[in-house]
Amino acid sequence: MNKLYKGALYIVPTPIGNLSDITYRALEVLKNVNMIAAENIRHTNILLQHFNIKNYIVSMNKENEKNKSDNLIEELKQGKIIALVSNAGTPIINDPGNILIKKCHFFNIQVIPLPGACAAITALSASGINKNRFCYEGFLPSKKKIRCDLLHSLKEETRTIIFYETKYRILESIQDIIEQIDQNRHIVIAREITKKWESIYGATATSILEWLKEDKYRYKGEMVVIIDGFKPLKTTFISKKILDTFFILRNSFSLKKAVMITSKIHDVSKNTLYQYAIKNKHDKII
């Protein structure tokens, strides 16, 4: 067994669905710490009973986190070893515990994170969408205006965007993505990851919405939504010569006609030139 350090807080990921996904090290820690701080005692007890682990569990949820953190800090100062767990996955990601960890750093108490399950990363790995750069937005806001404002701010985010959504709001959120980001943006919905009814489906935002509406069971359970990042228009193929022609024509013709004539003269894509013109509408006379 790995040695446990006295007076240390262990961050222990737990399975997000399939109990077999827990690590040997996580089981050792849960079995041998002095106490377990859990988001939900009943939920954690199911896990412990499955692996025949008996240990003392204290509740630490969003309602009591501040007070319980002070109590746990005192226990840690006295040399107690504590494991922090959430209902599922890696603690702190959308779960209580950050106050406790901040206090640990303030009092120079050792914090030891264990690797393990995380729905967002697990879903991303199977999405087929670029994984080199991504941003995690947690759960989208429940209020429509705030949600739409957030999505609009992400319209030109070049990184892959990951967030969680519930079955109650998924249809509204996808509709908001269509309106605020792009109806043709590629989206992947990973549902019930690691569980019996796991499904991963990707398509454009419009197609995803239609697909969901076809069968209500397609949006039952817990969902990770992954949005492909914005692809900036590559203007390297639009030379100065092409742009000079376009600007001259734009003096006498409408935007549409100037684009059409320029594309014929220089054999450049009308769509590429038009997108450039819209994106740079404040340049010169566009």
From TrEMBL:
GO cellular component: cytoplasm
Residue span(s) of domain Tetrapyrrole methylase: 9-206
Gene Ontology terms for molecular function: rRNA (cytosine-2'-O-)-methyltransferase activity
The keyword Methyltransferase is annotated on this UniProt entry: yes
Transmembrane regions listed in the UniProt entry: none
Pfam families xrefs: TP_methylase (PF00590)
Catalytic activity, as annotated: cytidine(1402) in 16S rRNA + S-adenosyl-L-methionine = 2'-O-methylcytidine(1402) in 16S rRNA + S-adenosyl-L-homocysteine + H(+)
Gene3D superfamilies found in the cross-reference section: Cobalt-precorrin-4 Transmethylase, Domain 1, Methyltransferase, Cobalt-precorrin-4 Transmethylase, Domain 2
E.C. number(s) listed in UniProt: 2.1.1.198
Keywords: Cytoplasm, Methyltransferase, rRNA processing, S-adenosyl-L-methionine, Transferase
UniProt subcellular location: Cytoplasm
Free-text function comment from the UniProt entry: Catalyzes the 2'-O-methylation of the ribose of cytidine 1402 (C1402) in 16S rRNA.
Family, per entry: Belongs to the methyltransferase superfamily. RsmI family.
Official protein name in the record: Ribosomal RNA small subunit methyltransferase I
Organism name: Buchnera aphidicola
Higher taxonomy: Bacteria, Pseudomonadati, Pseudomonadota, Gammaproteobacteria, Enterobacterales
Gene name tied to this protein: rsmI
